[in-house]
Amino acid sequence: MSKPDGHVEGYQRIRLVPGDEIEGHDRAGVAERVLPKDFGGASVLDIGCAEGYFCFEAKRRHAGRVVGLDISTKRLERARQIAEKLAAPVEFVERDFMAMSDAELGRFDFVLCLNVLHHVADPVGMLHKMVRVARRAILLEVADVGYRDVAESLGWWQGIVKLLPGALRPGMIVPNRKGQLFFTRRALRTILDQDSPEVEEIEFMRSDRRHRYLALVRLRWLESLSLLSGTSSVGKSEILRQLRSGDPEAARTVGVDPAHPPTIVNAIQVPKRLTPGTSRVLMHYDIRRPTREFWDFSSYASDPVLRLLGRSDKVTVYVLVCTPAALVSRVRDEQPSRPTAARIAKHEQYAQELVGLYSTPGAVRALYEAWCSFCKSRGCELKYIDYTTRRPRLVDEEEAYRILGQPIEQTT
Ligand SMILES: C[S@@+](CC[C@H](N)C(=O)[O-])C[C@H]1O[C@@H](n2cnc3c(N)ncnc32)[C@H](O)[C@@H]1O
């Protein structure tokens, strides 16, 4: 085995031409198991790329833009030399992934992070950051809790844990004596949160290396996402009924092509109703959601379903408005479904609360202002629909706020 231009052996074994290789770990088995056979022009980011084995392999498998990121000057120097020899157009960047902003990183279809998690101080933050950066999938190789130096933390429990197959180990993140963190599969699954709207599914595979495993994290990426948003009782359900019954005016107003209808979901049904492969989604969203006491988030920024806003090529937010007087009268007209004495009492209390809010001068407008400014901060396109007459009508922003700000006396 030869080495390129007098360099020492690397982390990865890389074949330059038949009979000419640099020495290191044989990573071919992992590549075979975890990389797509054909990237079909997709972009790839390899975090902790070392000498660039997986970058070259991605290029060989028809990837489009490939970026290899590493903090080691020496490894990247070698990677660049090999790239030249292989005539492989890979961008090698000497940066710490954790120190780069999401904007600097941009987005990649595939993100690779093999054997790097236990080298960073905040591996959980790293996983979440990878979810933000990746469109389609994250490919991971992770150090499990079997290492000898982890025994210090686990004590004799390590014997028991090691007896269990990887898939049956409980959710644990265990430090070794240097403070590096090791994850069981179940811990990784919980952190990536299978219930989050971003993760479609996680597939675990065995690695060639001892005490390591591979994880293929498939992410949700939508062709289009529309939100039908508005406050409680503004008429979202009614518009959806009109849509479902094939009303062409409703379909036109909320941009639905009847030949390719979207999957309609309520925020509460996300992510369960979003099966893998769903590509067009219309989600209805009550903009009072963060104020309802039964959810454990208190702002739009911390509402997990709104993370979907960052996971589509095209996001349109339809903002359904009507006059405060119309809101009050709709709340008063509503009846609980399947009325029992307890339900009626609960509904009355809820209706009173809403009437109080909608009758407070400026409150409805303020509620919508907070929602729209959040959506704008996420770069969403906003479209306003006046629903005062129960026939949807597109209006501009100025008109929408004029409707929302109408004093109640004027219209009652
Ligand atoms: C164990 S090697 C793994 C190399 C390669 N991913 C593989 O599995 O064949 C870890 C690599 O990650 C790099 N690394 C560690 N922390 C990093 C960070 N925060 N950002 C970018 N690279 C990092 C190291 O310099 C090293 O080259």
Describe the structure.
This protein is an alpha/beta fold. The protein folds into 2 domains: 216 residues, Rossmann fold (3-Layer(aba) Sandwich); 188 residues, Rossmann fold, CATH 3.40.50. It contains 15 helices and 17 strands. The protein has a 7-stranded mixed β-sheet with strand order 5-4-3-6-7-11-10, with helices on both faces. A 6-stranded mixed β-sheet has the order 13-14-12-15-16-17, with helices on both faces. The N terminus is likely disordered. The chain is 33% helix and 23% strand. The longest helix is centred in the last third of the chain and has 19 residues. It binds S-adenosylmethionine. S-adenosylmethionine binds next to strand 4.
Helix-strand layout with pairing:
Layout: E1 14-17, E2 20-22, H1 28-34, E3 44-47, H2 53-60, E4 66-70, H3 73-86, E5 91-94, H4 102-105, E6 108-114, H5 123-133, E7 134-143, H6 151-154, H7 157-163, E8 173-175, E9 181-183, H8 185-192, E10 199-206, E11 212-219, E12 224-230, H9 236-244, H10 248-253, E13 263-266, E14 280-286, E15 315-321, H11 324-333, H12 341-359, H13 363-377, E16 381-386, E17 393-395, H14 397-404, H15 408-411
Parallel strand pairs: 3-4, 3-6, 4-5, 6-7, 12-14, 12-15, 13-14, 15-16
Antiparallel strand pairs: 1-2, 7-11, 8-9, 10-11, 16-17
Bound molecules: S-adenosylmethionine.
